[in-house]
Specification:
Oligomer: single chain
Radius of gyration: 13 Å
Helix content: 25-40%
Order of helices and strands: HEEHEEH
Strand order of the largest sheet: 1-2-4-3
Shape: globular
Strand content: 15-25%
Low-confidence stretches: none
Distance between the termini: 33 Å
Number of strands: 4
Structural class: alpha+beta
Largest sheet: 4 strands, antiparallel
Length: 101
Amino acid sequence: MPVEPLSRQEIEDRLAELPGWSLDGDRLTRSYRLGSHFAATAMVVHIAQVQEELDHHSDLTLGYHTVALSVHTHSAGGAVTEKDFELARKVEDLAPGHGAH
Protein backbone atom coordinates (compact mmCIF):
# COMPACT_ATOMS: atom_id res chain seq x y z
CA MET A 1 0.00 0.00 0.00
CA PRO A 2 1.57 3.31 -1.05
CA VAL A 3 2.25 5.93 1.57
CA GLU A 4 0.79 9.35 0.79
CA PRO A 5 2.70 12.60 1.30
CA LEU A 6 1.31 14.84 4.04
CA SER A 7 0.18 18.38 3.31
CA ARG A 8 2.09 21.31 4.76
CA GLN A 9 -0.74 21.86 7.28
CA GLU A 10 -0.74 18.19 8.33
CA ILE A 11 3.02 18.37 8.84
CA GLU A 12 2.74 21.54 10.93
CA ASP A 13 -0.06 20.04 13.04
CA ARG A 14 2.00 16.92 13.77
CA LEU A 15 5.16 18.93 14.48
CA ALA A 16 3.25 20.83 17.19
CA GLU A 17 3.10 17.50 19.08
CA LEU A 18 6.87 16.85 18.73
CA PRO A 19 8.88 19.65 20.34
CA GLY A 20 12.40 19.85 18.99
CA TRP A 21 11.49 18.39 15.60
CA SER A 22 11.27 20.66 12.57
CA LEU A 23 10.82 20.64 8.83
CA ASP A 24 14.01 21.38 6.92
CA GLY A 25 13.19 21.46 3.23
CA ASP A 26 11.55 18.12 2.53
CA ARG A 27 12.77 16.35 5.69
CA LEU A 28 11.91 16.08 9.36
CA THR A 29 14.96 16.81 11.47
CA ARG A 30 15.97 16.67 15.13
CA SER A 31 19.22 16.89 17.07
CA TYR A 32 19.84 15.62 20.58
CA ARG A 33 22.66 16.63 22.93
CA LEU A 34 23.64 13.90 25.36
CA GLY A 35 25.92 13.78 28.37
CA SER A 36 28.71 11.82 26.73
CA HIS A 37 29.90 10.35 23.48
CA PHE A 38 29.09 6.89 24.84
CA ALA A 39 25.47 7.94 25.56
CA ALA A 40 25.17 9.36 22.05
CA THR A 41 26.55 6.15 20.57
CA ALA A 42 24.12 4.05 22.60
CA MET A 43 21.23 6.20 21.37
CA VAL A 44 22.31 5.61 17.76
CA VAL A 45 22.16 1.85 18.36
CA HIS A 46 18.66 2.14 19.86
CA ILE A 47 17.48 4.28 16.94
CA ALA A 48 18.91 1.77 14.47
CA GLN A 49 16.93 -1.00 16.17
CA VAL A 50 13.69 1.04 15.98
CA GLN A 51 14.37 1.79 12.31
CA GLU A 52 14.84 -1.90 11.56
CA GLU A 53 11.58 -2.74 13.36
CA LEU A 54 9.71 -0.08 11.35
CA ASP A 55 11.59 -0.86 8.12
CA HIS A 56 11.97 2.92 7.78
CA HIS A 57 15.38 4.54 8.04
CA SER A 58 16.65 8.06 8.60
CA ASP A 59 19.97 9.68 7.87
CA LEU A 60 21.58 9.36 11.27
CA THR A 61 24.64 11.35 12.34
CA LEU A 62 26.72 10.68 15.44
CA GLY A 63 28.72 13.61 16.77
CA TYR A 64 30.87 14.03 19.86
CA HIS A 65 27.91 14.35 22.29
CA THR A 66 25.18 14.65 19.68
CA VAL A 67 22.86 12.59 17.54
CA ALA A 68 21.06 14.12 14.54
CA LEU A 69 18.31 12.60 12.42
CA SER A 70 16.93 13.62 9.06
CA VAL A 71 14.11 11.62 7.51
CA HIS A 72 11.65 11.54 4.64
CA THR A 73 9.95 8.74 2.72
CA HIS A 74 11.77 7.65 -0.42
CA SER A 75 8.80 5.61 -1.66
CA ALA A 76 6.65 8.78 -1.58
CA GLY A 77 9.07 10.71 -3.79
CA GLY A 78 11.07 12.07 -0.88
CA ALA A 79 8.05 13.67 0.79
CA VAL A 80 7.19 13.66 4.49
CA THR A 81 4.63 11.00 5.40
CA GLU A 82 3.03 9.48 8.48
CA LYS A 83 5.88 6.91 8.48
CA ASP A 84 8.33 9.72 9.25
CA PHE A 85 6.24 10.90 12.18
CA GLU A 86 5.91 7.35 13.49
CA LEU A 87 9.70 7.08 13.52
CA ALA A 88 10.04 10.51 15.15
CA ARG A 89 7.60 9.58 17.94
CA LYS A 90 9.43 6.33 18.65
CA VAL A 91 12.79 8.12 18.77
CA GLU A 92 11.33 10.68 21.19
CA ASP A 93 10.11 7.84 23.41
CA LEU A 94 13.63 6.43 23.75
CA ALA A 95 15.51 9.74 24.02
CA PRO A 96 16.94 10.41 27.50
CA GLY A 97 14.76 12.87 29.37
CA HIS A 98 12.19 12.97 26.60
CA GLY A 99 10.02 9.89 26.94
CA ALA A 100 9.17 6.90 29.08
CA HIS A 101 12.08 4.78 30.34
